[in-house]
Request: fold
Amino acid sequence: MPLKLVFATNNRHKLEEVSHKIGDHFELLTLNDIGCMEDIEEPGSTFEENAAIKSKYIYDKYHLNCFGDDSGLVVDALNGEPGVYSARYAGEHGNHAANIKKVLTRLEGVENRKARFVTVISLMWEGKEHVFKGVVEGTIRHKISGIGGFGYDPIFQPDGYDITFAEMSMDEKNKISHRARALEKLISFLKNIK
Reply:
């Protein structure tokens, strides 16, 4: 019997990526699956704080082992922006096109296009928090390229590649993405406690 584990999200894209990676080690439940309809606010100023807010909220309220994540794009020339505001950088939450446009506009004429995607996972397991971090370095393209992925994927080219995340298959992206790297650490931890 696989262990039950709640992923504190209803984001379909994130769920697909994580399910693909976790496979059949655990029965992955979403917030909908456990009847959590609340919109969990993320007022933290770091990825670590926001991830912990989600996992602790679910663990404290539902007493279920749970992990929450927070991810974002960190652009050197923008002093780390959009950072924790990645999903709502242009104002409206989840407006990927507007967010991408804002980044590209702010980087017009800027030579330094170094950036990284960061994911932090906060796992609440039997009342104790464990934190896992994944980072992938890259650069911001001058224009959109590719139709896969989500968020900033069409403008992010990981180091060592000549294509964006949006031009990769899910398998390719899952081998190197920030979320994949954080998840590998999480899965490795979980396998050792089974």
About this structure: The chain has a mean pLDDT of 92. The chain has one domain: 3-193. The longest strand covers residues 128-140. The two ends are 11 Å apart (CA to CA).
